[in-house]
Design brief:
Distance between the termini: 60 Å
Largest sheet: none
Oligomer: single chain
Number of strands: 0
Radius of gyration: 20 Å
Helix content: over 70%
CATH architecture of the largest domain: Orthogonal Bundle
Length: 203
């Protein structure tokens, strides 16, 4: 097999345009509700032109999810083994909230995939995600053993951080409907969650 030819600038731009359009469509309609026609329309390309770059809806979805995993794990990777435990965990909460602010569509794409049973990213969850979470859970266990933070279940601590931060992206419409106009949910959440986790984790 010959090597794949390098993509031209136009080809790279078109791929990026398709992926950006697909992110918008998938995050709104989910994998099942999205169609190639919808993605092509959002990208401003014809369907045959789109199919030149990606052979199927699933190929586009898998490309997005593959790129997303690195982005998704970055805030947890940044947790420093040599840092102050309380500061490291509070920092992780803040980074996850910032993800909900900066990447709400990516969060909803990820949530939709998980709700459907993760058919296109189960392997990544069982390998890359699990390995990183297990590594950080072991770090948290060490901090607990040293008496530096309260005795909590490390895995469920991480799950609770996910639940309490990703909620603001995945359920944005509900949060804003309840709070009403003129309030910034994520700014309010940052102070609340900082207090919540500080009290929970205080040794």
């Amino acid at each position: 097999m010959g090597m794949e030819k390098p993509r031209t600038r136009i080809q790279k731009k078109n791929r990026e345009t398709i992926l950006e359009a697909a992110l918008e469509v998938f995050s709104q309609h989910g994998f099942r509700g999205a169609t190639l026609d919808m993605i092509a329309g959002a990208a401003g390309l014809s369907k045959p032109n789109l199919l030149y770059y990606f052979p199927s809806k699933e190929a586009i979805h898998v490309t997005l999810l593959s790129g997303l995993m690195d982005t998704w794990l970055a805030p947890l990777r940044e947790m420093d083994t040599g840092g102050d435990p309380m500061e490291e965990l509070r920092g992780y909460v803040r980074r996850k909230l910032q993800m909900s602010r900066d990447f709400p569509r990516e969060s909803r794409l990820f949530a939709n995939e998980i709700v459907q049973g993760a058919p296109r990213m189960q392997e990544g969850l069982e390998t890359e995600l699990k390995a990183l979470v297990d590594e950080k859970a072991e770090l948290i266990r060490g901090w607990i053993a040293q008496g530096r933070i309260a005795d909590v279940d490390p895995h469920h601590l991480i799950f609770s951080i996910w639940a309490l931060t990703q909620h603001y992206a995945d359920f944005d419409a509900q949060v804003r409907a309840v709070l009403g106009e003129g309030r910034d949910p994520l700014t309010e959440a940052e102070g609340f969650l900082d207090t919540l986790f500080t009290r929970l984790l205080a040794p």
